[in-house]
What does this fold into?
Amino acid sequence: MRQSKVLTIGEVLVEIVATERGNGFREPVKLIGPFPSGAPAIFIDQVGKLGQAAAIISRVGDDDFGHVNLDRLKSDGVDVSGIDVDPLGTTGSAFVRYREDGGRNFVFNIRHSACGSIEIKGPAAALVETCTHMHVMGSSLYAPSVVEAILKATRRIKAKGGTVSFDPNLRAEILNSPGMREALAIVLGETDLFLPSGEELFLFSPADSEKEAVANLLKGGVKAVVLKRGAAGASYFDATREVSLPGFKVTEVDPTGAGDCFGATFVTFWLAGADPETALRYANAAGAKAVTRSGPMEGASTRAELDALIAEQRT
Ligand code: ATP
Ligand code: MG
It folds into this structure.
């Protein structure tokens, strides 16, 4: 049997976080960071940490923020040969401050950072040929060259008989960037495993109920839908089965990265042929572990850590 290898493409960033809650950055605040970040980077780090072959295509600057990411991804087992280190570029960043109400204010530098343009050529093109599964983060469709790179790799991996997973990772209100909806729809057309969270289920299938939205997606060619429900857990749907599992009971410290670690774990177990219930249980455990640690990528778990949480809360 061919060894599976998971690929993703998109933003690699550092996150720098205000240590005190409040409104934004219009006055000096204490900061902590840099933490390795970027939704596709968090996703692929979690895949690598589970021992599944994994790779990411992106671009960073030849600066400390870039090397923080390269070092972490490498040490967690991710193939970084597709990350172009641009000597003239600056690594992307996100400054984040939590408000008292739990909301967040951001200052992003992504579109004009090194990963503002990503191309599939040289080592990245060779890497695509070695991968059997493509994971698309909707939030990575932020610039024309990145959209083109994602669509190219997705189609290539599909054409070779591979599979595709897709996490829209957007809230309905940020769908306005030009060409975004079109690109999302093309990706959905290639998707085997769709991993929306909450209202994202209705992005492509305006329906009156969850059941109807899922039925429309399955009719459209998606093989399975995995719906994330935050602290309440998650549900799995395919043509013949429906499985729902509650979330694990943990103390939430920082919700960032939960969906990415959840998705990475579900995809890893799904590719290994696990039944939906097992994949969902491990994915819920990974999402729960993720929220217990501050820093976006800090909450990625090993298989042993997931086994320990599952054993601890088995009823
Ligand atoms: P993100 O904000 O990272 O994009 P998301 O909206 O994609 O997240 P969520 O539904 O918030 O996804 O979280 C993904 C999974 O993580 C959930 O399905 C659940 O398994 C787990 N999870 C999230 N929050 C909690 C929590 N407070 N307690 C336990 N598990 C949680
Ligand atoms: Mg998400």
Summary: The first strand starts at residue 6 and ends at 9.
